[in-house]
Design goal:
The chain is mainly alpha-helical. The chain has one domain. It contains four helices and two strands. The chain has a two-stranded antiparallel ribbon. Helix 2 crosses helix 3. The protein is globular, with a radius of gyration of 13 Å.
Length: 70
């Protein structure tokens, strides 16, 4: 049985071993808007900081590190 086609913006996107879903993309955007650090985001998604940094860069976003926040 064939799975239904997803719209381009609904398809999961891989960055390294993690495949990002549209829902996770939205959660990342909200986390950045809320002021979460990149380490907090990595913990939330159970991935490494470089994986989050790569994803955020691809989305045109950035989050501060804990060292920058102090």
């Amino acid at each position: 049985m064939r799975e239904p086609d997803l719209e381009l913006d609904e398809q999961p996107v891989a960055t390294g071993p993690h495949v990002w879903t549209p829902d996770e993309d939205q959660q990342l955007r909200e986390g950045v808007e809320f002021g979460c650090t990149i380490e907090e985001l990595a913990d939330q998604f159970e991935v490494t900081v470089p994986v989050v940094a790569l994803k955020l860069a691809g989305m045109g976003l950035a989050a501060p590190s804990e060292a920058e926040v102090g």
